[in-house]
Design a protein that fits this description.
The chain has helices at 2-15, 32-35, 40-45, 52-55, 61-75, 81-97, 101-111, 117-131, 134-145, 153-164, 175-183, 189-194. It contains twelve helices and no strands. This is Lipoprotein.
Length: 212
């Protein structure tokens, strides 16, 4: 029964393609039905097997968003709430990059119950950007910038840098992304997110390049 549901979900996704058709935005190397069998971590983070393998192809963001939606619908409540919020956030980013503003906002709003204060303010700023609401954007940006650093933040960053041998995150998280959106407030999300609003994005520019 589960196998039938997986196949049906893939067929439904293929039937409703409007932006990024299956022919120009092929699924990862794994078979279509197999990507739904990936673990949440694999599907969300594996650049060779999950949604990112499609999203990194030029013009395929909408198909990646649909892949994420199909994965969520197929696995339902078996996805831990925090992982579900991450998937919804990435789905929102893909819808926004594809120019589907209302769908992007819907996905971003759905992440807020699971987000901490910093993440929720990041969501507020992103939604305000998409709505072209400068006042709401400025309010969210100011609130994010004013958030006090968590008690154990410095130790956590030091541990991160020692483990991964690269610079750790900077507090407040995602303020740099919000500032790029603010600097490119009248631009499309894809260009604003990448900070390329002063020049046309090249074919290699992707909204996944700086994803938090």
């Amino acid at each position: 029964m589960k196998s039938f549901m997986v196949v049906a979900a893939v067929l439904a996704m293929s039937a409703c393609e409007t932006v990024g058709e299956a022919g120009t935005c092929p699924l990862p190397e794994v078979a279509a039905a197999q990507f739904l069998g990936l673990s949440v971590a694999q599907f969300d983070h594996d650049s060779q097997a999950g949604w990112r393998a499609v999203a990194d192809q030029q013009g395929c963001e909408a198909r990646a968003a649909k892949m994420i939606g199909t994965y969520i619908a197929t696995h339902g409540d078996t996805i831990p709430s925090a992982h579900r919020a991450n998937l919804l956030w990435h789905q929102g980013q893909m819808w926004a990059a594809a120019g589907h503003t209302n769908k992007a906002i819907e996905s971003f709003l759905a992440t807020k119950p699971e987000g901490d204060e910093a993440q929720n303010l990041y969501a507020d700023a992103t939604i305000a950007f998409l709505r072209r609401d400068q006042q709401a954007f400025d309010h969210a940006r100011a609130a994010l910038a004013a958030l006090p650093k968590p008690k154990n933040w410095d130790k956590a960053v030091a541990d991160f840098e020692a483990r991964f041998k690269r610079p750790g995150p900077v507090w407040p998280m995602n303020l740099d992304v919000v500032d790029r959106l603010g600097a490119c407030f009248d631009s499309a999300y894809r260009q604003a997110y990448a900070g390329t609003c002063e020049a046309e994005a090249s074919p290699s520019t992707s909204a996944t390049a700086h994803r938090p």
